[in-house]
Amino acid sequence: MKPIFNDHTPIYLQIMTHIKKQIVVHILQPGDKLPSVRELSKNLEVNPNTVQRAYQELEREEITYTQRGMGTFVTDIEEKLHMLKKEMAKDLITNFIQQMKSIGFVEDELAEIIAVFIKKNKE
Amino acid sequence: MKPIFNDHTPIYLQIMTHIKKQIVVHILQPGDKLPSVRELSKNLEVNPNTVQRAYQELEREEITYTQRGMGTFVTDIEEKLHMLKKEMAKDLITNFIQQMKSIGFVEDELAEIIAVFIKKNKE
DNA sequence: TCTAGTGTATTATTTATATAGTACACTAGA
DNA sequence: TCTAGTGTACTATATAAATAATACACTAGA
Question: What is the average per-residue pLDDT within B48-73?
Answer without folding.
Answer: 96
